[in-house]
Amino acid sequence: MKTHDIDAAVRGLALTRTEDRITDAAWTQVAENVTSEHAPAVSLEPRRRPARPRLLLAAAASLLIVGVVAATLVNRPGQNQPQALSFTEQGDKLIVRIVDPTADPKRYNAEFEKMGLDITVKTIAVSPPMVGMIAGITGRTESDFKPLHRLAPGEKCNGTLNAADPGCQEGLELPKNYDGEALIEFGREAKPGEMYLHTSGSATAKGEMLAGLVIHNKPVAQVLPQIAARGVKVVSYLSGNAPDLDSSQTAPGNWYVHGAMSHAPGEVILFVGAKPEK
After folding, report:
1. How do 85-90 and 93-98 pair as beta strands?
2. In DSSP terms, which residues pair with 186 in a beta bridge?
3. CA distances from 69 to 75, 76, 211 (A)
4. Distance between CA 123 and CA 133 in Å, rounded?
5. Residue 127 and residue 261 in contact, taking contact as beta carbons nearer than 8 Å
6. What is the pLDDT of residues 200-221, one digit of tens each?
7. Among the listed residues 198, 174, 194, the one whose alpha carbon sits nearest the alpha carbon of residue 185
8. Angstrom distance (rounded) from CA 198 to CA 179
9. What's the pLDDT tens digit per position in 98-139?
């Protein structure tokens, strides 16, 4: 609030009766006190009836001060909506990192749009290790896709930040003048029964359902109980050397497991064969 606005507001309280008028010196002192951080007690010099004008002016000063403080607290932009993405310039490049991996895709898209970038984010169901990570980047054309570079956690971070810092997770590097169109697929937790659209290379990889389980070239009959002990179900069998094997059938117990792939929460697909894999 400007000083001349406060002066006008205070003068608006002036009484119309000539016998209740306040001296010019009193008006000046009140205006100065309203804009001061520590306003002293107001001492007025009324010509007549001193008590009532003093009370009115003191109340006016208090209301004006409260109004200024309230406006400062309420009108703070973004007070309840932190950024979902961070944008950092490095030379002629722009570094984009995910600040809030749980944000609604609309927030990501809005922040890209605010930066003048035609980049859209959509979420897809992924296996546990991929949740909160970029699952894929595609461009409308090769010229749209080629300038985009995916950054691993810890890559091109400022100062002392490293891959363990939330502000230095994986991101995207692109030219500051990027004028292409791209789509980013961002991993989210799958719903029960929902098929994963992106997984690790193997269901035994770190963070996957069968993490650490040794199954390669082990007999099917030996592997199935170990998988069941993890609370995981085999929903399909695939075989390269037995194309006539129906995926819904159970593979012979004396066949060998070549690998496993996460399919959905609590479900995997086994790759099997009649002989051990070389």
Report:
1. antiparallel
2. 123, 134
3. 10, 12, 56
4. 10
5. no
6. 989 999 999 999 999 999 999 9
7. 198
8. 28
9. 888 888 999 999 999 999 999 999 999 999 999 988 999 999
